[in-house]
């Protein structure tokens, strides 16, 4: 069925594929299908020019499409990463990093370098100098699941 549709459309099949991919990009945004859609449209433009040529077989067309897709994806990745937009919430998906600078009271003493604090509704494992329960501490760093703390001066 797909083969018969592609045969009837001729070089326009690539344009249809490109437009379908661009529509899918709008429906399922991810800034990836747009580059493959552009590659399909460029392959369609080449097909319009080269359709009657003996070397322009379906195998060559798919090879050109694959190469153009790869090149477009690499160029697109460079364009997107070069924008350098800074986020107003740089630690949105890095919860531990977003806690740096906050203060809390030790729920469990820091003994042999390890203890626990409560921040908001979560208990966090902390590392730092040995301190008794109830000491006010400030989060100075995060290494994933553990926070590094230091005693707050004057507390």
Automatic annotation (TrEMBL):
Q: How is it placed in the membrane, per its record?
A: Multi-pass membrane protein
Q: Which InterPro entries match?
A: Membrane_assoc_protease, NA-bd_OB-fold, NfeD-like_C
One protein family per Pfam: NfeD
Q: What is its main location?
A: membrane
Which Gene Ontology terms of cellular component type are present? plasma membrane
Entry's localization field: Membrane
The segment(s) forming the NfeD-like C-terminal domain are 97-150
> Where is the chain membrane-spanning?
12-42, 54-75
Q: Which domain of life is it from?
A: Bacteria
Q: List keywords of the entry alphabetically.
A: Membrane, Transmembrane, Transmembrane helix
Indicate what this protein is called per its UniProt record.
Answer: NfeD family protein
* Lineage, top ranks: Bacteria, Pseudomonadati, Pseudomonadota, Alphaproteobacteria, Hyphomicrobiales
């Amino acid at each position: 069925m797909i083969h018969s549709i592609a045969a009837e459309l001729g070089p326009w099949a690539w344009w249809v594929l490109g437009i379908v991919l661009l529509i899918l990009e709008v429906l399922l945004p991810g800034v990836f299908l747009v580059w493959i859609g552009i590659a399909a449209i460029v392959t369609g433009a080449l097909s319009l020019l080269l359709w009657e040529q003996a070397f322009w077989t379906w195998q060559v067309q798919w090879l050109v499409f694959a190469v153009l897709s790869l090149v477009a994806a690499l160029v697109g990745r460079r364009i997107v990463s070069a924008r350098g937009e800074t986020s107003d919430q740089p630690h949105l998906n890095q919860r531990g990093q977003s806690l740096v600078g906050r203060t809390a009271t030790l729920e469990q003493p820091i003994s042999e370098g390890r203890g626990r604090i409560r921040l908001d509704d979560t208990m966090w494992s902390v590392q730092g100098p040995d301190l008794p329960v109830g000491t006010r501490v400030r989060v100075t760093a995060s290494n994933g699941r553990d926070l590094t703390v230091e005693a707050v001066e004057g507390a």
